[in-house]
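Input C-alpha coordinates:
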Protein backbone atom coordinates (compact mmCIF):
# COMPACT_ATOMS: atom_id res chain seq x y z
CA UNK A 1 0.00 0.00 0.00
CA UNK A 2 1.23 3.47 -0.91
CA UNK A 3 1.10 6.07 1.87
CA UNK A 4 0.84 9.80 0.76
CA UNK A 5 3.68 11.95 1.87
CA UNK A 6 2.30 15.00 3.75
CA UNK A 7 5.43 16.92 3.11
CA UNK A 8 5.05 16.50 -0.63
CA UNK A 9 1.50 17.94 -0.45
CA UNK A 10 2.70 20.93 1.48
CA UNK A 11 5.36 21.51 -1.12
CA UNK A 12 2.77 21.60 -3.86
CA UNK A 13 0.82 24.30 -1.94
CA UNK A 14 3.87 26.43 -1.36
CA UNK A 15 3.25 30.11 -2.58
CA UNK A 16 -0.57 30.02 -2.47
CA UNK A 17 -0.69 32.31 0.55
CA UNK A 18 1.65 34.72 -1.19
CA UNK A 19 -0.58 34.83 -4.25
CA UNK A 20 -3.66 35.44 -2.10
CA UNK A 21 -1.84 38.17 -0.19
CA UNK A 22 -0.70 39.85 -3.39
CA UNK A 23 -4.21 39.68 -4.88
CA UNK A 24 -5.65 41.17 -1.70
CA UNK A 25 -3.03 43.91 -1.74
CA UNK A 26 -3.82 44.64 -5.39
CA UNK A 27 -7.53 44.82 -4.62
CA UNK A 28 -6.97 47.13 -1.67
CA UNK A 29 -4.68 49.29 -3.80
CA UNK A 30 -7.31 49.55 -6.54
CA UNK A 31 -9.97 50.56 -4.00
CA UNK A 32 -7.61 53.11 -2.44
CA UNK A 33 -6.72 54.49 -5.86
CA UNK A 34 -10.39 54.83 -6.81
CA UNK A 35 -11.08 56.60 -3.52
CA UNK A 36 -8.23 59.00 -4.15
CA UNK A 37 -9.49 59.69 -7.67
CA UNK A 38 -13.06 60.16 -6.42
CA UNK A 39 -11.84 62.47 -3.71
CA UNK A 40 -9.90 64.49 -6.25
CA UNK A 41 -12.89 64.67 -8.57
CA UNK A 42 -15.15 65.79 -5.72
CA UNK A 43 -12.60 68.39 -4.68
CA UNK A 44 -12.38 69.62 -8.25
CA UNK A 45 -16.17 69.73 -8.59
CA UNK A 46 -16.46 71.50 -5.25
CA UNK A 47 -13.80 73.99 -6.29
CA UNK A 48 -15.50 74.66 -9.61
CA UNK A 49 -18.86 75.04 -7.90
CA UNK A 50 -17.36 77.35 -5.29
CA UNK A 51 -15.72 79.49 -7.96
CA UNK A 52 -18.88 79.56 -10.09
CA UNK A 53 -20.99 80.49 -7.08
CA UNK A 54 -18.54 83.21 -6.07
CA UNK A 55 -18.70 84.70 -9.57
CA UNK A 56 -22.50 84.49 -9.49
CA UNK A 57 -22.78 86.40 -6.23
CA UNK A 58 -20.09 88.89 -7.28
CA UNK A 59 -22.15 89.66 -10.37
CA UNK A 60 -25.31 90.08 -8.30
CA UNK A 61 -23.44 92.40 -5.94
CA UNK A 62 -22.49 94.61 -8.87
CA UNK A 63 -26.05 94.68 -10.18
CA UNK A 64 -27.43 95.53 -6.75
CA UNK A 65 -24.89 98.34 -6.36
CA UNK A 66 -26.11 99.84 -9.64
CA UNK A 67 -29.77 99.33 -8.74
CA UNK A 68 -29.30 101.09 -5.44
CA UNK A 69 -27.23 103.97 -6.78
CA UNK A 70 -29.83 104.78 -9.44
CA UNK A 71 -32.17 106.03 -6.70
CA UNK A 72 -31.78 109.77 -5.93
CA UNK A 73 -32.56 108.99 -2.28
CA UNK A 74 -29.54 106.66 -1.98
CA UNK A 75 -26.56 108.17 -0.11
CA UNK A 76 -24.33 106.80 -2.91
CA UNK A 77 -26.56 108.12 -5.72
CA UNK A 78 -24.46 108.44 -8.88
CA UNK A 79 -24.92 112.20 -9.25
CA UNK A 80 -23.57 112.83 -5.76
CA UNK A 81 -20.23 111.44 -6.98
CA UNK A 82 -20.28 112.63 -10.60
CA UNK A 83 -22.59 115.50 -11.51
CA UNK A 84 -25.19 114.64 -14.16
CA UNK A 85 -23.97 111.05 -14.42
CA UNK A 86 -27.65 110.21 -14.99
CA UNK A 87 -30.53 112.54 -15.77
CA UNK A 88 -33.24 112.97 -13.15
CA UNK A 89 -36.65 113.37 -14.77
CA UNK A 90 -38.99 114.59 -12.06
CA UNK A 91 -37.74 112.44 -9.20
CA UNK A 92 -36.65 109.36 -11.19
CA UNK A 93 -33.44 108.52 -13.10
CA UNK A 94 -33.40 108.49 -16.90
CA UNK A 95 -30.97 107.88 -19.77
CA UNK A 96 -31.28 108.75 -23.45
CA UNK A 97 -31.00 106.11 -26.16
CA UNK A 98 -27.31 105.67 -26.96
CA UNK A 99 -26.14 106.54 -23.44
CA UNK A 100 -24.16 103.94 -21.55
CA UNK A 101 -22.97 104.10 -17.95
CA UNK A 102 -20.35 101.78 -16.41
CA UNK A 103 -19.35 101.11 -12.82
CA UNK A 104 -15.67 100.09 -12.82
CA UNK A 105 -14.32 97.77 -10.11
CA UNK A 106 -10.66 97.18 -11.04
CA UNK A 107 -8.40 95.23 -8.71
CA UNK A 108 -4.90 96.48 -7.82
CA UNK A 109 -2.61 96.76 -10.85
CA UNK A 110 -5.54 95.98 -13.14
CA UNK A 111 -7.04 98.04 -15.96
CA UNK A 112 -10.74 97.53 -16.65
CA UNK A 113 -11.88 99.20 -19.87
CA UNK A 114 -15.05 97.49 -21.13
CA UNK A 115 -15.44 99.79 -24.15
CA UNK A 116 -12.03 98.71 -25.51
CA UNK A 117 -12.81 95.50 -27.38
CA UNK A 118 -9.16 94.44 -27.15
CA UNK A 119 -9.30 94.57 -23.36
CA UNK A 120 -9.38 91.25 -21.45
CA UNK A 121 -12.55 92.58 -19.79
CA UNK A 122 -14.25 93.95 -22.89
CA UNK A 123 -18.03 94.23 -22.96
CA UNK A 124 -18.79 91.88 -25.84
CA UNK A 125 -22.41 91.38 -24.83
CA UNK A 126 -23.40 94.94 -25.77
CA UNK A 127 -23.45 94.18 -29.51
CA UNK A 128 -25.88 91.30 -28.95
CA UNK A 129 -28.38 93.75 -27.46
CA UNK A 130 -27.79 96.77 -29.69
CA UNK A 131 -27.78 95.42 -33.22
CA UNK A 132 -24.10 94.52 -33.58
CA UNK A 133 -22.73 97.88 -32.43
CA UNK A 134 -19.94 98.17 -29.90
CA UNK A 135 -20.45 100.37 -26.84
CA UNK A 136 -20.06 104.10 -27.59
CA UNK A 137 -16.69 105.61 -26.77
CA UNK A 138 -16.08 107.29 -23.45
CA UNK A 139 -17.26 110.87 -23.83
CA UNK A 140 -19.43 110.00 -26.83
CA UNK A 141 -22.28 108.47 -24.87
CA UNK A 142 -20.35 106.40 -22.32
CA UNK A 143 -19.21 107.48 -18.86
CA UNK A 144 -17.28 105.56 -16.23
CA UNK A 145 -17.63 105.79 -12.46
CA UNK A 146 -15.82 103.85 -9.73
CA UNK A 147 -17.56 101.29 -7.58
CA UNK A 148 -18.28 102.32 -3.99
CA UNK A 149 -15.71 99.68 -3.03
CA UNK A 150 -13.01 101.85 -4.64
CA UNK A 151 -14.00 105.13 -3.02
CA UNK A 152 -12.92 106.31 0.42
CA UNK A 153 -14.12 105.90 3.06
CA UNK A 154 -15.86 102.75 1.79
CA UNK A 155 -12.65 101.11 0.56
CA UNK A 156 -11.18 98.66 3.05
CA UNK A 157 -7.74 99.92 4.13
CA UNK A 158 -6.88 96.33 5.01
CA UNK A 159 -6.82 95.40 1.36
CA UNK A 160 -10.20 93.72 0.87
CA UNK A 161 -11.44 94.57 -2.60
CA UNK A 162 -15.11 93.76 -2.07
CA UNK A 163 -17.09 91.74 -4.61
CA UNK A 164 -14.93 90.80 -7.57
CA UNK A 165 -17.07 92.02 -10.42
CA UNK A 166 -15.15 93.91 -13.12
CA UNK A 167 -17.81 96.22 -14.47
CA UNK A 168 -21.53 96.93 -14.43
CA UNK A 169 -23.28 98.49 -17.41
CA UNK A 170 -26.51 100.53 -17.25
CA UNK A 171 -28.43 101.26 -20.45
CA UNK A 172 -31.96 102.33 -21.27
CA UNK A 173 -34.09 99.44 -22.48
CA UNK A 174 -35.63 99.24 -25.95
CA UNK A 175 -37.62 96.52 -27.65
CA UNK A 176 -34.49 95.60 -29.58
CA UNK A 177 -32.21 95.37 -26.54
CA UNK A 178 -34.79 93.36 -24.60
CA UNK A 179 -35.75 91.19 -27.55
CA UNK A 180 -39.39 91.84 -26.66
CA UNK A 181 -42.17 93.19 -28.86
CA UNK A 182 -43.93 95.38 -26.32
CA UNK A 183 -46.66 96.96 -28.42
CA UNK A 184 -47.25 94.24 -30.97
CA UNK A 185 -45.70 96.20 -33.84
CA UNK A 186 -42.21 96.01 -35.24
CA UNK A 187 -39.25 95.75 -32.86
CA UNK A 188 -38.22 99.33 -32.11
CA UNK A 189 -34.60 100.29 -31.43
CA UNK A 190 -35.12 104.01 -30.89
CA UNK A 191 -37.95 104.29 -28.34
CA UNK A 192 -37.30 103.78 -24.62
CA UNK A 193 -39.38 101.08 -22.97
CA UNK A 194 -41.40 102.41 -20.03
CA UNK A 195 -42.99 100.78 -17.00
CA UNK A 196 -46.41 101.66 -15.61
CA UNK A 197 -46.51 100.33 -12.06
CA UNK A 198 -50.19 101.15 -11.69
CA UNK A 199 -51.54 99.48 -14.82
CA UNK A 200 -52.47 95.79 -15.03
CA UNK A 201 -50.55 93.42 -17.29
CA UNK A 202 -51.94 90.61 -19.47
CA UNK A 203 -52.52 88.30 -16.49
CA UNK A 204 -54.11 90.94 -14.32
CA UNK A 205 -51.09 91.70 -12.12
CA UNK A 206 -49.95 95.25 -11.37
CA UNK A 207 -47.22 96.61 -13.63
CA UNK A 208 -46.84 96.55 -17.38
CA UNK A 209 -44.36 97.58 -20.09
CA UNK A 210 -45.34 100.26 -22.59
CA UNK A 211 -43.86 102.63 -25.15
CA UNK A 212 -46.42 105.37 -24.47
CA UNK A 213 -45.33 107.94 -21.86
CA UNK A 214 -47.79 109.16 -19.26
CA UNK A 215 -47.76 110.68 -15.79
CA UNK A 216 -47.46 107.17 -14.33
CA UNK A 217 -44.68 105.74 -16.53
CA UNK A 218 -40.96 105.63 -15.79
CA UNK A 219 -38.00 104.38 -17.78
CA UNK A 220 -36.85 100.75 -17.83
CA UNK A 221 -33.12 99.98 -17.50
CA UNK A 222 -30.94 96.99 -18.31
CA UNK A 223 -28.20 96.41 -15.74
CA UNK A 224 -25.49 93.97 -16.81
CA UNK A 225 -22.56 92.83 -14.64
CA UNK A 226 -19.37 90.96 -15.55
CA UNK A 227 -17.70 89.06 -12.71
CA UNK A 228 -14.34 87.29 -13.21
CA UNK A 229 -12.63 85.21 -10.51
CA UNK A 230 -8.81 84.87 -10.17
CA UNK A 231 -8.99 81.35 -11.65
CA UNK A 232 -10.79 82.71 -14.74
CA UNK A 233 -14.32 81.66 -13.79
CA UNK A 234 -16.71 84.24 -15.29
CA UNK A 235 -20.39 85.13 -14.98
CA UNK A 236 -22.47 87.64 -16.95
CA UNK A 237 -25.64 88.60 -15.07
CA UNK A 238 -28.45 90.93 -16.09
CA UNK A 239 -31.45 92.57 -14.44
CA UNK A 240 -34.19 94.49 -16.20
CA UNK A 241 -35.41 97.04 -13.65
CA UNK A 242 -37.83 99.93 -13.48
CA UNK A 243 -38.52 102.63 -10.88
CA UNK A 244 -41.90 102.12 -9.26
CA UNK A 245 -44.13 104.76 -7.72
CA UNK A 246 -47.13 104.56 -5.45
CA UNK A 247 -49.30 104.98 -8.55
CA UNK A 248 -51.34 107.82 -7.08
CA UNK A 249 -53.50 110.04 -9.25
CA UNK A 250 -56.43 112.18 -8.25
CA UNK A 251 -59.71 113.19 -9.94
CA UNK A 252 -59.88 116.68 -8.40
CA UNK A 253 -57.89 119.28 -6.50
CA UNK A 254 -59.67 118.39 -3.25
CA UNK A 255 -61.23 114.93 -2.97
CA UNK A 256 -63.51 113.96 -0.09
CA UNK A 257 -64.14 110.22 -0.02
CA UNK A 258 -66.95 108.99 2.18
CA UNK A 259 -69.98 110.47 3.89
CA UNK A 260 -69.39 114.20 4.30
CA UNK A 261 -70.62 115.04 7.77
CA UNK A 262 -69.59 118.71 7.60
CA UNK A 263 -68.29 121.13 5.01
CA UNK A 264 -67.48 124.77 5.78
CA UNK A 265 -65.52 126.68 3.15
CA UNK A 266 -63.28 129.66 3.83
CA UNK A 267 -64.83 133.12 3.93
CA UNK A 268 -61.99 135.15 2.42
CA UNK A 269 -61.81 136.34 -1.19
CA UNK A 270 -58.19 135.05 -1.77
CA UNK A 271 -59.17 131.46 -0.85
CA UNK A 272 -59.84 129.43 -3.99
CA UNK A 273 -60.01 125.79 -5.00
CA UNK A 274 -59.14 125.21 -8.67
CA UNK A 275 -58.98 121.95 -10.59
CA UNK A 276 -57.13 123.38 -13.61
CA UNK A 277 -53.63 121.93 -13.79
CA UNK A 278 -50.97 124.40 -12.61
CA UNK A 279 -53.44 127.13 -11.66
CA UNK A 280 -51.79 128.05 -8.36
CA UNK A 281 -50.00 131.26 -7.48
CA UNK A 282 -46.58 131.45 -9.20
CA UNK A 283 -43.91 130.36 -8.58
CA UNK A 284 -45.18 126.83 -8.13
CA UNK A 285 -43.13 125.13 -10.82
CA UNK A 286 -41.26 121.83 -10.89
CA UNK A 287 -38.01 121.91 -12.93
CA UNK A 288 -38.41 119.99 -16.16
CA UNK A 289 -42.18 119.60 -15.86
CA UNK A 290 -44.92 121.74 -17.35
CA UNK A 291 -48.53 121.43 -16.15
CA UNK A 292 -51.16 120.88 -18.80
CA UNK A 293 -53.53 123.85 -18.59
CA UNK A 294 -56.00 121.96 -20.81
CA UNK A 295 -56.32 119.35 -18.07
CA UNK A 296 -59.13 120.72 -15.94
CA UNK A 297 -60.69 118.62 -13.19
CA UNK A 298 -63.40 119.44 -10.64
CA UNK A 299 -62.30 121.73 -7.86
CA UNK A 300 -63.88 119.37 -5.33
CA UNK A 301 -64.63 115.71 -5.94
CA UNK A 302 -67.10 113.69 -3.88
CA UNK A 303 -67.85 109.98 -4.12
CA UNK A 304 -71.62 110.04 -4.41
CA UNK A 305 -72.71 107.51 -7.00
CA UNK A 306 -75.27 109.12 -9.32
CA UNK A 307 -78.16 109.73 -8.93
CA UNK A 308 -77.34 110.22 -5.21
CA UNK A 309 -76.28 113.82 -4.56
CA UNK A 310 -76.33 114.24 -0.79
CA UNK A 311 -72.56 114.78 -0.43
CA UNK A 312 -72.50 117.15 -3.38
CA UNK A 313 -75.35 119.11 -1.84
CA UNK A 314 -73.58 119.23 1.54
CA UNK A 315 -70.44 120.65 -0.08
CA UNK A 316 -72.21 123.11 -2.34
CA UNK A 317 -74.33 124.51 0.48
CA UNK A 318 -71.22 124.99 2.64
CA UNK A 319 -69.36 127.19 0.11
CA UNK A 320 -69.64 130.90 0.96
CA UNK A 321 -68.03 132.12 -2.31
CA UNK A 322 -69.15 129.75 -5.11
CA UNK A 323 -67.28 131.66 -7.85
CA UNK A 324 -63.96 130.80 -6.12
CA UNK A 325 -64.37 127.06 -6.83
CA UNK A 326 -63.59 126.46 -10.51
CA UNK A 327 -62.41 123.79 -12.95
CA UNK A 328 -63.58 120.71 -14.74
CA UNK A 329 -65.98 122.38 -17.14
CA UNK A 330 -68.62 122.34 -14.43
CA UNK A 331 -70.75 125.26 -13.40
CA UNK A 332 -69.53 127.13 -10.36
CA UNK A 333 -69.01 126.02 -7.75
CA UNK A 334 -67.11 123.19 -9.45
CA UNK A 335 -68.19 120.20 -7.36
CA UNK A 336 -68.62 116.81 -9.03
CA UNK A 337 -69.00 113.11 -8.39
CA UNK A 338 -65.72 111.36 -9.17
CA UNK A 339 -64.34 107.84 -9.61
CA UNK A 340 -61.32 106.93 -7.54
CA UNK A 341 -58.09 105.12 -8.27
CA UNK A 342 -58.56 101.53 -6.92
CA UNK A 343 -55.88 102.26 -4.33
CA UNK A 344 -58.09 104.98 -2.87
CA UNK A 345 -61.54 103.49 -3.34
CA UNK A 346 -61.88 101.01 -0.45
CA UNK A 347 -60.87 100.88 3.23
CA UNK A 348 -58.72 97.83 2.48
CA UNK A 349 -56.97 99.59 -0.38
CA UNK A 350 -56.36 102.68 1.75
CA UNK A 351 -54.91 100.62 4.60
CA UNK A 352 -52.59 98.77 2.22
CA UNK A 353 -51.54 102.05 0.61
CA UNK A 354 -50.68 103.58 3.98
CA UNK A 355 -48.69 100.46 4.91
CA UNK A 356 -46.73 100.55 1.64
CA UNK A 357 -45.95 104.26 1.97
CA UNK A 358 -44.96 103.82 5.62
CA UNK A 359 -42.50 101.07 4.68
CA UNK A 360 -40.80 103.43 2.23
CA UNK A 361 -41.14 106.74 4.09
CA UNK A 362 -38.26 109.12 4.79
CA UNK A 363 -39.76 109.79 8.22
CA UNK A 364 -42.50 108.24 10.35
CA UNK A 365 -43.85 110.34 13.24
CA UNK A 366 -45.85 108.75 16.05
CA UNK A 367 -47.13 111.41 18.48
CA UNK A 368 -48.19 110.36 21.99
CA UNK A 369 -51.88 109.56 22.38
CA UNK A 370 -53.95 112.71 22.73
CA UNK A 371 -51.33 114.96 21.09
CA UNK A 372 -50.55 116.02 17.55
CA UNK A 373 -47.25 115.82 15.73
CA UNK A 374 -45.78 119.21 14.81
CA UNK A 375 -44.28 120.75 11.70
CA UNK A 376 -41.05 121.19 13.69
CA UNK A 377 -40.56 117.43 13.46
CA UNK A 378 -40.57 117.39 9.65
CA UNK A 379 -37.30 116.80 7.76
CA UNK A 380 -35.65 120.25 7.54
CA UNK A 381 -35.07 119.86 3.80
CA UNK A 382 -38.80 119.36 3.21
CA UNK A 383 -39.68 122.78 4.67
CA UNK A 384 -36.63 124.68 3.41
CA UNK A 385 -36.79 127.05 0.47
CA UNK A 386 -36.33 125.58 -2.08
CA UNK A 387 -37.53 122.36 -0.51
CA UNK A 388 -36.57 118.76 -1.21
CA UNK A 389 -39.63 116.48 -1.44
CA UNK A 390 -39.87 114.02 1.41
CA UNK A 391 -42.26 111.20 2.18
CA UNK A 392 -43.58 111.70 5.71
CA UNK A 393 -46.13 109.54 7.52
CA UNK A 394 -47.78 110.81 10.71
CA UNK A 395 -49.37 107.96 12.65
CA UNK A 396 -51.95 110.13 14.39
CA UNK A 397 -52.96 113.81 14.33
CA UNK A 398 -50.78 116.48 12.74
CA UNK A 399 -50.53 120.28 13.00
CA UNK A 400 -48.76 121.88 10.04
CA UNK A 401 -48.46 125.16 11.95
CA UNK A 402 -47.05 128.08 9.94
CA UNK A 403 -44.85 125.81 7.80
CA UNK A 404 -44.76 125.34 4.05
CA UNK A 405 -43.29 122.10 2.77
CA UNK A 406 -43.29 119.65 -0.11
CA UNK A 407 -43.50 115.95 -0.82
CA UNK A 408 -45.94 113.20 0.12
CA UNK A 409 -47.57 113.80 3.51
CA UNK A 410 -49.76 111.06 4.99
CA UNK A 411 -51.72 111.73 8.17
CA UNK A 412 -53.58 108.79 9.70
CA UNK A 413 -55.56 111.02 12.07
CA UNK A 414 -56.89 114.56 11.81
CA UNK A 415 -55.09 117.34 9.96
CA UNK A 416 -54.85 120.96 11.11
CA UNK A 417 -53.35 123.79 9.12
CA UNK A 418 -53.18 127.58 9.43
CA UNK A 419 -53.49 130.53 7.09
CA UNK A 420 -49.77 130.63 6.31
CA UNK A 421 -49.47 126.85 6.03
CA UNK A 422 -48.83 125.39 2.60
CA UNK A 423 -47.76 122.20 0.87
CA UNK A 424 -46.53 121.32 -2.61
CA UNK A 425 -47.31 117.74 -3.50
CA UNK A 426 -49.79 115.29 -2.04
CA UNK A 427 -51.59 115.46 1.30
CA UNK A 428 -53.41 112.25 2.25
CA UNK A 429 -55.54 112.50 5.39
CA UNK A 430 -56.69 108.95 6.03
CA UNK A 431 -58.01 108.51 9.55
CA UNK A 432 -60.54 106.42 11.42
CA UNK A 433 -63.94 107.46 12.71
CA UNK A 434 -64.65 110.93 11.34
CA UNK A 435 -61.53 112.26 9.60
CA UNK A 436 -61.16 116.02 9.92
CA UNK A 437 -59.36 118.49 7.68
CA UNK A 438 -59.35 121.76 9.62
CA UNK A 439 -57.99 125.19 8.73
CA UNK A 440 -57.66 128.14 11.07
CA UNK A 441 -56.83 131.82 10.58
CA UNK A 442 -55.78 133.81 7.54
CA UNK A 443 -52.60 134.14 5.54
CA UNK A 444 -51.16 133.46 2.10
CA UNK A 445 -50.23 129.76 2.24
CA UNK A 446 -51.61 127.39 -0.40
CA UNK A 447 -51.65 123.75 -1.42
CA UNK A 448 -50.39 122.87 -4.93
CA UNK A 449 -50.87 119.28 -6.02
CA UNK A 450 -53.80 117.38 -4.52
CA UNK A 451 -55.50 116.93 -1.15
CA UNK A 452 -57.36 113.71 -0.38
CA UNK A 453 -59.46 113.12 2.75
CA UNK A 454 -60.94 109.72 3.63
CA UNK A 455 -61.70 107.36 6.50
CA UNK A 456 -61.06 103.65 6.83
CA UNK A 457 -64.02 103.22 9.19
CA UNK A 458 -67.47 101.93 8.27
CA UNK A 459 -69.34 104.16 7.78
CA UNK A 460 -66.56 106.38 6.47
CA UNK A 461 -67.25 109.95 7.61
CA UNK A 462 -65.14 112.96 6.65
CA UNK A 463 -65.29 116.60 7.71
CA UNK A 464 -63.83 119.74 6.10
CA UNK A 465 -63.93 122.91 8.16
CA UNK A 466 -62.14 126.21 7.45
CA UNK A 467 -62.60 128.95 10.00
CA UNK A 468 -61.33 132.40 9.02
CA UNK A 469 -59.49 133.21 5.81
CA UNK A 470 -57.86 129.82 5.30
CA UNK A 471 -54.96 131.04 3.14
CA UNK A 472 -54.92 131.04 -0.66
CA UNK A 473 -56.56 127.64 -1.16
CA UNK A 474 -55.96 124.36 -3.00
CA UNK A 475 -54.80 124.05 -6.64
CA UNK A 476 -54.41 120.91 -8.73
CA UNK A 477 -50.87 120.43 -10.06
CA UNK A 478 -49.87 117.22 -11.87
CA UNK A 479 -46.16 118.10 -11.73
CA UNK A 480 -46.13 118.29 -7.95
CA UNK A 481 -48.21 115.11 -7.73
CA UNK A 482 -45.58 113.31 -9.78
CA UNK A 483 -42.62 115.00 -8.08
CA UNK A 484 -43.79 114.00 -4.61
CA UNK A 485 -43.91 110.29 -5.47
CA UNK A 486 -40.22 109.52 -5.32
CA UNK A 487 -39.51 105.96 -6.45
CA UNK A 488 -38.90 103.95 -3.27
CA UNK A 489 -37.16 101.21 -5.22
CA UNK A 490 -36.36 99.83 -8.66
CA UNK A 491 -38.44 96.74 -9.26
CA UNK A 492 -36.76 93.74 -10.90
CA UNK A 493 -38.88 93.09 -13.98
CA UNK A 494 -36.77 90.15 -15.19
CA UNK A 495 -33.45 88.42 -14.55
CA UNK A 496 -31.14 86.18 -16.53
CA UNK A 497 -27.65 84.69 -16.58
CA UNK A 498 -26.03 85.33 -19.96
CA UNK A 499 -23.79 82.69 -21.60
CA UNK A 500 -20.29 84.09 -21.95
CA UNK A 501 -19.88 85.57 -25.45
Amino acid sequence: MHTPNPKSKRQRETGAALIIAMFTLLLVSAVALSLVMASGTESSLAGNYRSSTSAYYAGLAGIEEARGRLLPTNPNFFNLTTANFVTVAGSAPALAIGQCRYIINAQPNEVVDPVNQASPFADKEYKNEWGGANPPAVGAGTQYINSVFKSAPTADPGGSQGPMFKWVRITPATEQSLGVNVNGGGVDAATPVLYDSGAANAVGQAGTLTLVPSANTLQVFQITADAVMPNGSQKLMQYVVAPVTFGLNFPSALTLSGNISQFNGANSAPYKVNGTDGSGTPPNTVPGCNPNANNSLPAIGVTDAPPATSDKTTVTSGIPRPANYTGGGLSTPSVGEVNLNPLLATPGGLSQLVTTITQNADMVLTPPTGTAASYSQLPPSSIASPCTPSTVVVQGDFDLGPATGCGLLVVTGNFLYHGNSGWDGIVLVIGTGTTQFVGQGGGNGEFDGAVFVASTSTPANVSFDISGGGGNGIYYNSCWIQQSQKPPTLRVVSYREIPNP
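The two ends are 91 Å apart (CA to CA). The chain has two domains: 68-245+487-498, 254-483.
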